[in-house]
Each structure stands twice: as C-alpha cells, then as structure tokens.
Design brief:
single chain, about 130 residues, mainly alpha, globular
C-alpha cells in the first residue's frame, strides 16, 4: 500500500505529490538557476518560500541541502538531502543531488550509487551522465 497523501479519499502518486503549483514551480526553477550561478543565499530563500507551503516536498528539501552544502553547512546539508530523499525516493532529482553531495566530499563510491539510482529513474538525463 502506498504512503501517498489522501485527497478527497484518493491517494496521490509520488508524481502527483512532486507536482508543485505554478508559482512554486517557478521558484523551484529559480533555486536551480541560483545554484548554477553560485547565488546560494538567494537559492536558500527561494527554497524556504516553497517549504513554507510544501514542507514535505522532497526535491525542494534536497535542493536546500545542496545549497547549504555550498555555504559550508555540511551537516545540515546531509540532513535536508536525506529528508528530501525519504519524502520522494522515486525522484531522479533527489538521487542526483545526493550524488552531488557525496561527490563534493570526495566519496565517489557513494556518489556513483546515487547517480545510478538517478539514471534508473531518468535514463535520458545527460546532466546526470556528465556528473
């Protein structure tokens, strides 16, 4: 039996739980851009905005962790990434972020495991292959 949220008597699939409203989707894309342009504090603020309304959103929790890692807050980073993964085990984004975190700590064996899980969920993703 799945652990999805119930809405009107029906359970949501992991994909439905992952789906954010358009405003939050836009914020999530901004988090990724802020990460890519090394604007980590702005990324953290955007993540916190989403998490106020959607505290269990796995991909946002993971991206918040990745951003914290870049701000030298490693312990918190691992907590958020692990919580994000626990909330959405079927997300290639969560697995990819976990791999990036391990890679930043030079734990390549664990990073590869995470990347392989991400690729299993999204076989065509070139970025995962690059990392």
């Amino acid at each position: 039996m799945s652990k999805g949220k119930k809405v009107g008597g029906t359970k949501l699939s992991p994909e439905e739980k992952r789906q954010l409203p358009s405003k939050e989707q836009s914020l999530f894309r901004q988090i990724v851009k802020f990460y890519e342009t090394k604007q980590y504090k702005k990324g953290l603020k955007a993540a916190e905005q989403i998490l106020k309304k959607h505290p269990e959103h796995g991909e946002t929790l993971s991206m918040k962790g990745l951003t914290l890692n870049c701000l030298e807050r490693k312990e918190e980073a691992y907590e958020f990434v692990k919580k994000g993964l626990r909330n959405d085990l079927s997300s290639h984004v969560c697995w990819h972020v976990f791999g990036l975190l391990y890679r930043s700590d030079h734990d390549y064996k664990e990073a590869i495991k995470c990347y392989l899980n991400a690729l299993r969920l999204d076989k065509e993703n070139i970025q995962i292959l690059r990392d």
